[in-house]
Amino acid sequence: MATVELETILDLNTLEQYCSAIGAGTLLKSVVLFEQLMPEYVGNLVKANEAADKDTLCAEAHKFKGAAGSVGLKRIQQIAQLLQHGEEARWDAEHGTWVAQIVEFASADLQQLKQFLQAKA
To answer: Would the pTM count as exceeding 0.90?
Structure first.
């Protein structure tokens, strides 16, 4: 994958710093934990969206944003960042799209992250 594409998916700067500080293998262990928790995170977003529960959706998006960011998943972190701010003018019109994008990209982005770290380990 081209670096430009990878830079839209992963926070390469942060990942490089993590790899230097703790090693790719150690970071990969955190990514595996995130991978185990991700279905629950995404499921909670989908359920809250389907229930039209804005408060829960924003709260779950905030948690997901932090978790995704902690392992360097830039694209889904940025989408969750938008989703957590229910007070924004465009939220009502866009939140469904953002949830769908997280559902669409989360697994593939995670696989890209794992490949990136495995290549560094």
So the answer is: yes
